[in-house]
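Changelog-adjacent note: as of this version, every example in the card shows the full chain rather than a window. The one below runs 291 residues end to end.
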Amino acid sequence: MHPAPSVILFSSLSGLGFGLLAWLGIGLPAVTGWVAFVFFALAYLLAVGGLIASTFHLGHPERALKAFTQWRSSWLSREAWASVAALLTMAAYGAGLVFYDMRLWPLGLLGAALSLLTVLTTAMIYTQMKTVPRWHSVMTPLNFLSLSIAGGAVLAGQVTAAIVLLVLAGAVQIAAWWHGDRALAASGTDIATATRLGNIGSVRAFEPPHTGSNYLLREFVYQIGRKHALKLRVIAITLMVLLPLLLLLSPAFHHLAAALAVLSHAAGVLTSRWLFFAQAEHVVGIYYGKR
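Full-length structure tokens:
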């Protein structure tokens, strides 16, 4: 699918923000007062900033509130409710830490769970799409959740946990790429199954449906060369996992190194998420000879 900047920013930044909120909800780091305010401000800046960015991809952003009405059937609607519930719960929990030096554990644990639930609902928006075999897998929610939790650990300054979680997130990302590269072929979907003419012989497109571009080609058919994809994967893993690990494991680890680890990880997640959309391989591309 066409990698829209607003969607990439939303799924990347909000994941980091809600990941940090989850760590704050379980009391890590154990901060109060103005220090807690800084951590919560950063988390909300990322989470809310990502949510706002997502509205720019809507055909009618002014109708965004209608997303709350279809919670029975739409993962997008469930995401909207989960995000609001998480942000409100964590706001109450954060207020206790910042203004009253009081840790309301039930609120914190509930907020942490809701924060991770928000990330899960975001992932399920894509996982449910059978038309994109690369996404229609358990690897998609695992990828989103592992990166969110690992990124949250880096932002929260949980060095030991971050080292372990970054390695796990990197492994999940590589596994997701490996599985995704085989997903379209494994789905058995081709022009023969799409037209149901395979039983009478070999099926091929005589000519494309039309000569000009259209909405489907612009939104759902995007091709990236295999060599370019490999280079971007190496860049993503390096920025997202390897460089932060080197910084966290450095004997001279300090606040500047921590900031660089955060920035590097965020850049790697953005690169990985761009590839997530650019390599989607929507099956509609079969009709246009693009798969």
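Structural remarks: The chain has a mean pLDDT of 88.
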